[in-house]
Design brief:
23 helices; 2 strands; mainly alpha; 482 residues
Amino acid sequence: MNPKVVFYSVGKLTKFLGALMGIPCVLSLVYREPDFFPLAIAATVTLLSGYLIERLCSRAKDEEIRHREAFAIVSLGWAIVALFGSIPFLLAGTFSSFIDAYFESMSGFTTTGATVLTNIESQPHGILFWRSFTQWLGGMGIIVLGIAVLPKLTVGGMQLLAAESPGPSPERLKPRIAETAKIMWGIYLLFSFSEVVLLKLVGLSLFDSVIHMFSTMPTGGFSSHTSNIGFFDQAKVETIITCFMFLAGGNFALYYYFLKGNPRRLFRDSEFRFYGFVVIAAIILVTLNLWGGTYKSVWSSFRYAAFQVVSINTTTGFTTQDFDLWPPLSRGILLLLMFIGGCAGSTGGAMKNVRILILLKKGYQELVRLVRPRAVIPVKLGDRPVEEAVIAGITGFFILYILLFLVSSLILMKLGVDMISSVAATAATIGNVGPGLGLVGASRNYAFLPPVAKGILSLNMLLGRLEIYTVLVLLLPATWRK
């Protein structure tokens, strides 16, 4: 491990973040609100801190970024970015405690959408913009963005991409990793612009359109209203957001091939078809469970079920209704979806459909072997067999994910949080979903939790966003040896 290489790269990212903080400063000037100075001071502190770190480690600028440095850059980079991202909240008086500001910032950058902010409408436009902007930056990945725009990070870029990108293995679309990063961000920008235009056309203000795009495309869930998407109570708004949430939960590499004139690759992809099946099946089950009891008409049942299923399954976390009041079966399905999440290569969180699909195929393979011990039945994704090493890695990830879920849930219970809320809060933060059940349900938030619990859940968000291995590998002594 070469610490100077790590801190040099983190310094560049921090400096870049400081420059981006200038955007909400401009918005604050436009609205003539008092959050300009807090945002400007935060931007200056972040920019100078990044510059200082970069200068102190400048001798390492030409050294190679290896796997161990990549893990440290990504893990430390996200933690430090969330730290500096919390400064505007503290200086503007949005939160009086550091842990609340850090929780909100980490929730934003990891696209979790869990909030400790109780009265959202009371906040100035610049702070609300920054709060949602953190999600948009974190959605495709701040390291991927850095690779696309910062020349130094293209050295060792594949290691950085592998350490940050969700899914078993990132797909290289172009020979040069910087070109791959630019393509991914290009598609992300295209979808983002399209959603803003459509939301503006159906009557939302430009500010609300941008804020909710900032949360939809990264599957985040922050809103400019306390009642979230339910504030608008418009089926056409919900339909647009539902479609873009579904797109955000798909593999962006497949969209690249689709836009290049190869749509078959998208619709023949095993994971994408499984993703679609899970969403459709869940919508049907929840609709039937709500119809006649919670809602009288089949249309209302379908409308709210479709939005909430897609929102939770993609780990966006938007809400239109208090689903904590829904029947047990519907709540159980939503809780299960928190563990599944979107596709590999999407902005969604949780375990990812490809892992669930491979584990199901592996389970089927083992069942057949009990009946036909000599049968050779390879686990396949489409026409391609999955290597045993990949299956072993997925199995290990699944075990670590469940273990982290159990340990975190028990710690929250020990801190006095009831069982349902502890389980839901843990599932919602590791899966980067946001709202859970019980005291952290759709109509509530995480403000009531003790500081220690907020710290644990902030760590859960980071572990979930970086898919556990990237962070935990730093605990191994071998990682730090030269």
